[in-house]
Amino acid sequence: MAIGTKGLAPADLDAMTDEALIGEAKKCKEELFNLRFQAATGQLEANGRLKAIKRDIARIYTLLRERELGIRTAPAPTAKSGKKK
Q1: Distance CA 76, CA 65 (A)
Q2: Distance between CA 30 and CA 67 in Å, rounded?
Q3: What is the dihedral of CA 31, 21, 15, 76, to 10 degrees?
Q4: Cβ(67)–Cβ(16) below 8 Å
Q5: CATH says 8-69 is which class?
Q6: Are 50 and 4 in contact (CB under 8 A)?
Q7: CA 33 → CA 21, 37, 83, distances in Å?
Q8: Which tens digits make up the pLDDT trace of 69-82?
Q9: Are 37 and 29 in contact (CB under 8 A)?
Q10: Which single residue of 14, 27, 33, 72 could bond 66 by disulfide (Cβ 3.0 to 4.6 Å)?
Q11: How do residues 48-71 score in pLDDT, each as one tens digit?
């Protein structure tokens, strides 16, 4: 099994929009900052989490770049009807 967060499997990331991916990247970067801070102060208990978060960030950026280059396509927006019955 690949190292990473459960909710950030490649299949899950493919289903996200670009905006959602950017938001997820921001969350991962904040977590990475906090983990690095904990490591510097000697409070970090799960050292493997640093590697997992770095891989998640790289996975997200790779997917965004592939979409930018046209290698992958973003998911089609779902049509929500504004009509109430």
Answers
A1: 18
A2: 24
A3: 160
A4: no
A5: mainly alpha
A6: no
A7: 18, 6, 45
A8: 999 888 877 666 55
A9: no
A10: 72
A11: 999 999 999 999 999 999 999 999
